[in-house]
Design brief:
Elements (H helix, E strand, L loop, with lengths): L3 H16 L17 E6 L6 E4 L13 E7 L6 H4 L3 E6 L2 E7 L5
Length: about 100
């Protein structure tokens, strides 16, 4: 016959094992290879958007009077991101945002 103490100990160990798993960690966003990253951390240091250079995917969107940013689509709810410019396109999960150079940094 199993003692109550042993049953409670086994139950407690099972509960602790179930709780000991690491919480799901958010994986960092990886920008697609079709975009040329020129700078990181936009519009603030450590920010999620990146200043983009010219590639096949961005050549029609570049403008001398504006910077072109690439932002992960999941960050566009942040008003600091959404307010910096005008959405001009999307590319493989990245929102392309045109920011007037006068407003940039």
């Amino acid at each position: 016959m199993i003692s109550m103490r042993r049953v409670l100990a086994l139950f407690g160990m099972g509960m602790m094992t179930a709780c000991a798993t690491d919480p799901a960690r958010e994986t960092p966003f990886v920008f697609p290879e079709g975009l040329r990253i020129m700078e990181g951390g936009y519009p603030y240091a450590g920010g999620p958007c990146r200043l983009l250079g010219e590639t096949f995917a961005t050549s029609e969107l570049l403008d001398d009077s504006a910077d072109l940013l690439g932002c992960p689509s999941n960050v566009m709810d942040d008003p600091r991101i959404a307010s910096v410019g005008r959405i001009v396109g999307r590319y493989e999960g990245v929102v392309l945002v045109s920011v007037p150079k006068a407003a940039a940094r």
